[in-house]
Amino acid sequence: MKLAVASGKGGTGKTSLACALAQALGPRAALLDCDVEEPDCALFLKPEIESEAEFCVPVPVIDGAKCKGHGRCQEVCAYNAIKIFNKKPFLFEHMCHSCGGCVLACPEKAITETAHPVGKIRHGRAAGQFFADGTMNIGEASPVRLIKAVKKLAPPGTHTIIDCPPGTTCPMINAVAGSDFCLLVSEPTPFGLCDLKLAVETLEKIKVPHALVINRADLGDGEMEAWCAGKGIKILLRIPFDRVIAEAYSRGETLLSARPEYRMALRAMFEAIRSETAV
Amino acid sequence: MKQVLILSGKGGTGKTTVAGAFARLAAPCVTADCDVDAADLHIILAPEPVSRNNYFGGKKASIAPDKCVSCGRCLELCRFDAVEAAPFRIKETACEGCGVCVWNCPAKAIDFREVLSGTWAVSPCRFGTFAGARLEPAEENSGKLVALLKTEAVKAAEAAGVKYLILDGSPGIGCPVLASLGGVDAVVVVAEPTVSGRHDFLRLAELLKAQKIRGFLLVNKWDLNGEETARLEAAAAQYGFSLLGRVPFDAAVVKVLIARKTLGEEGGGEAAAAVELAWNKLSLELEA
What residues of B are in contact with residue A174 (Cβ under 8 Å)? Predict the structure, then answer.
């Protein structure tokens, strides 16, 4: 089963839950950290890294000698990444989405592509379990390609847990897409609920079944529970605020090392999701 | 007019809570919610309802089934895995609007239309003016919307002649964050004293250094780990950040948010006092 852990709002406990769930399931599950802008799972799972590679995307290179300044590249580029000044093309690389449109459009075949590094991908093992993460280079705009590349590392024959980026736009969608189920993690505050509603709408749109874990369940009000009841969204686990967990987290320790008693609850939650998705 | 942007790197550290408190302390001011992916500041600022403007984030492709000759050229060329085969169809949420399929379809069977990605508005709130947007779920191009919102917020601030523009930012370091950085006078990073908080802070600090933007650190929930707080502050000092102080963990903060108020608006509390102190320090430094 491919299980995504997402939230809408940031800092609700996605990484904590994803890491604890991975630890509770052991080697039959793999963990992919797809929050490539801020990849933090490795800080908690401390994997032994077996491989690290640069990840690149193609960007155009314009051969000034061949270019006749027709401006067809400027015309087809949807991202304003190529502009013609005085019949000469100028490339704004940070605007480029690597679609390859300009290469196809150039009548002089003056545009080729070169590899531009946008981040790195690592994989290894944590307590016998497959682990992979991506880290976007600082200054890059789009994490989407890197997220997709990390997802491709899911080993066959194991369950996969995907730690997703916050938000409800392209990074989150690309991390969640193709999952059998999405576990949402939120906190019962007005901010948590507002973003949960957006996350649920997004998951409905991309047709990924989902349920909720409420973190810091006692620091808030009852509106989230009421909204979920009305929507028919199942709440699979409630984790109360616990200073022992918060302090352990601050030291880079997981939920399970602070409170091992959650192991059985997490396994039971996983089995409940499996029986619901029949994967 | 000074632009103050609140960022964090890691999500959920208290950006919006701090931005709301700063809006009250800087009033009358203009406030803009640049976290358009998960906009929450309107909940506590309660801007007056006004008519909203449409935001078109970009174009999306769609295949006309009656014109499609099923040659598969679109599937072959699309680099975003947005084309589904037989019958050929564009997955709307995967389409990045590049137009490669549109330009290269031999049957000219692919339509390319602007899509409504969200709405935005500038309206009065009890601390001055608020600029906010709502992005439709599963929409993209949030960087473009952030840039638009900032332009409108700057216009409003200049027209009103206020001293401060307070900008609530996004988590992460990607496109919405990059779009919010243009023209800011100070970035206040709200960070928690955790191993992951420090890791994410350092990534953001690198970005600000590269962009030559002045950084200020506010440590939230500092008492969860005093040693990590000291490490975070030391790391920030190395990047030339000014320290704005330490906010203790305070369960009262959640109660204030549930009442849909800004921190400190209805009396004190330890966290409210620390955030007010931070604002006083920041405004003194910016006015110096």
Answer: 94
* Cβ under 8 Å to A: B residues 58-87: 58-59, 77, 79-81
Give A177-224 pLDDT, tens digit per residue.
999 999 999 999 999 999 999 999 999 999 999 999 999 999 999 999
d(CA A19, CA A17): 5
Chain B contact for A189 (CB, 8 A cutoff)? yes
Rounded (5°) CA angle B217-B220-B222: 105
Give yes or no for A136 touching B (CB within 8 A).
yes
pLDDT(B141) > 80: no
A251 contacts B224? CB cut-off 8 A: no
The per-residue pLDDT of chain A, averaged, comes to 96
Shortest CB distance from B139 goes to which of A44, A101, A169?
A169
| Three-point CA angle B120, A96, A35, nearest 5° | 70
Residues A220 and A103 in one domain: no
ipTM over 0.85: yes
Tokens representing A33? 């950290």
Closest CA to B246 of B282, B283, B275, B267: B275
Are A10 and B10 within 8 A, CB to CB?
Answer: yes
The answer to whether B40 faces chain A, any CB pair under 8 Å, is yes
Cα(B40)–Cα(B29) distance, rounded to whole angstroms? Answer: 18
pLDDT in tens, A225-268: 999 999 999 999 999 999 999 999 999 999 999 999 999 999 99
CATH topology of domain B2-46+126-287: Rossmann fold (3.40.50)
Contact A1, B2 (CB under 8 A): no
Any B CB within 8 A of A205 CB: yes
The total number of structural domains that make up chain A: 2
Chain A, chain B: beta-carbon pairs less than 8 Å apart: 190
Of the pLDDT bands very low, low, confident and very high (cuts 50, 70, 90), residue B143 is: confident
The predicted pLDDT at position B224 comes to 96
* CATH assignment, B56-116: 3.30.70.20
Residue B215 — very low, low, confident or very high, per pLDDT cuts 50/70/90? Answer: very high
CA distances from B65 to B62, B77, B86, B199 (A): 9, 19, 11, 50
Domain of A86?
A: 64-109
What residue segments make up the domains of chain B, in order of their start? 2-46+126-287, 56-116
A87 in the same domain as A69: yes
Check B172 against A11: CB less than 8 A apart: no
